[in-house]
Design goal:
27% of the residues lie in helices and 25% in strands. The chain contains 14 helices and 24 strands. The protein is globular, with a radius of gyration of 21 Å.
Amino acid sequence: MAAVRKVLIVGSGGREHALALRLLASAAVEEVIVAPGNAGTAAPPPALPYKRLRNGGQDAPLAIAKREGVDLVVVGPEGPLCDGLVDELTREGFLTYGPSKLAAELEGSKAFMKGFAVRHGIPTARHVVVGDGAATASDLEALVRSFEIPPVVKADGLCAGKGVVVAESHEEALAAAREMLSGQRFGDAGATVVLEERLVGEEASIHAICDGERYVVLPAAQDHKRIFDGDRGPNTGGMGTYAPAPVVTPQVMERFEREVMVPVMRGMAAEGRPFRGTLFAGVMVTPEGQAKLIEFNVRFGDPETQVLMATLDGDLTEALASAARGQLDPSALRASGHHAICIVLAAGGYPDTPRKGDVISGLAEATLDPAVQVIHAGTVLDAAGNVVTSGGRVLGVTASAPSLAKAHTLAYQAVAKVHFPGMQYRRDIAGRAGLSLGLVGGWGPAPNR
Ligand code: AMP
Ligand code: GLY
């Protein structure tokens, strides 16, 4: 099989910048194009001056793939995956890593995902579907009250991570469900609503690279979704991550593979939707040590990718290309033994109304240590060549080291060098691992406990 020299990555976030840097590190890869990309993907990092990294512009991915003659396409975000971009590129003859439109329904429809989990015996929260004929809105109040603890309310379709309400009372759950069903809150994505039992435990993100049949599981990561320290304030796309996450012990991982990975791979193939691409299970690790499925995502997590790239050894480009061909060798990737942490620097006003257009300073100073990478997300270059903010999550300061304590110190030292007006970040990333390892100061109780 010809080596992959030129790769197109579709997307513009931190996930795509982190993937680009990791794919560039593969010996055979000469050039990575990110489209649309951000200020970080506009030029190669100083460590790799002999490789090319650039942005591909705003054209449709197929047009860029044709123009550039790429050997592999990696599709980052869920939107184009659920819209069938992988099917389109594959039809046109491009080797493309990511799930088909049919397989992407695992993320695109929560009702499909829940039904699938029930059909295949995958442990997940008890649920009912409202609004697609399974139950009518008039039964809503009775359904909400049928859950002893107020249920979690979820819009069926994609809502950029905002379609979930973890209600504190039955009244709040009922109001959220009514609002979603009315179409006021999420339009069509809320026309069907899932009510589900609230799970108790500690969350983790477990990713697997899959070829339709085989898979390789990556070290578990933990995200910090709330905006403020101590898991307070509104949910965000993710304010920071670390990996490996000690809550996923080898025993929990073994059980996860047996109870979730094996049935999902077999079940998707049996239902005519073999899963190729990254399957990211958001799980709740219960006090009994079982990983119960909260959701499936059909892509790499953001900011999980930033830390996962540092916890893997092996040629990731070859692994993704062979998975896309349906010929993954699961031994091609191994845990590196390193620990990594990513601190997200978010714009003022995030998550509601992020400020844009502020000049960022200190980027060069922050990356003096080679163990630190500043991964770009919501950044653009202005006409004068300054890096300016352009979105909610602006940067992900990422460090890796042989210990989590060392990575933690390096990352926060680097954060202190970066500045832009209104910058917000959490001071307690990896605090929960710190509690169990005795490394860093703790903070209040974990949510859902
Ligand atoms: P999701 O978009 O499905 O990942 O949900 C967003 C967040 O809501 C998750 O990361 C959890 O923190 C929380 N959540 C979702 N479902 C449940 C559940 N059944 N029990 C407890 N928390 C949940
Ligand atoms: N960080 C969570 C996600 O990517 O969905």
